[in-house]
Specification:
With 169 residues, this protein is α+β, with helices and mostly antiparallel strands. The chain is built from four helices and seven strands, in the order αββαβαββαββ.
C-alpha cells in the first residue's frame, strides 16, 4: 500500500512540472508618439500653412468682437489602424508567437508608420534574447499588422513613430 501511495505522489509531482509555453502581454498603450514630416519639401509646406494660419489668427484677434477659431491643432491626424489602436493591439497579441525557451522580461519596440500607409520600420531596441527579437520582427512583417493609414498634417502624409512594450512571463 505504501508503494502505491508513493508512486501516486511521484507521478503527481512529475505531471505538475511539465514545461508550459511562455505567455506574453503588452504594455497598457503606445508611448512616446512623434509625428514628423518625411521630407524637407513637406516640412516647408507645413511651415508655410502654419505661419499663414498664425498670421490670420493675429489679424482676427485685432478685430473687436471677432470670433476667432484656431484650427492648427485639429489639422493633425494620427496614424490609424482599421477599427483603432485597440484592434492593433489585439492583432499584435494574436500574431506574436514565441518559442518555448525564450527569456522572460521586457521587450521594447519602436515602430515607424510611413507616408505610404504602411509600417516603414520596426526597431526592437530592447529584447530579452535573440529568439524573442526574431519573433517580434516576424510578427510585424505580417500582413495583418501592416494595414495602417498614414498620419497627416494639413492633409500632407507624414511619418509617425511610437513605442510599445511586450512583456514575456
Amino acid at each position: 500500500m505504501k508503494n502505491i501511495f508513493l508512486l501516486i505522489i511521484v507521478f503527481y509531482f512529475l505531471s505538475c512540472t511539465s514545461r508550459k509555453l511562455p505567455y506574453h502581454y503588452l504594455s497598457p498603450g503606445v508611448e512616446n508618439i512623434k509625428i514628423f514630416p518625411a521630407t524637407k519639401k513637406d516640412s516647408l509646406t507645413i511651415q508655410k500653412i502654419d505661419s499663414s494660419i498664425t498670421k490670420s489668427m493675429e489679424e482676427c484677434m485685432k478685430i473687436k468682437n471677432a470670433m476667432c477659431i484656431d484650427e492648427r491643432g485639429i489639422m493633425i491626424l494620427d496614424a490609424t489602424f482599421p477599427k483603432g489602436m485597440y484592434y492593433f493591439r489585439i492583432a499584435l497579441f494574436h500574431t506574436l508567437k514565441f518559442p518555448k525557451h525564450v527569456k522572460k522580461g521586457e521587450n521594447r519596440v519602436l515602430v515607424t508608420i510611413g507616408t505610404q500607409n504602411n509600417i516603414e520600420s520596426v526597431d526592437v531596441y530592447q529584447y530579452t534574447d535573440l529568439n524573442s527579437k526574431k519573433s517580434i520582427e516576424e510578427a510585424f512583417r505580417s500582413e495583418e499588422l501592416n494595414r495602417w493609414g498614414s498620419a497627416k498634417i494639413y492633409g500632407i502624409p507624414v511619418k509617425e513613430q511610437f513605442e510599445i512594450g511586450i512583456f514575456i512571463k
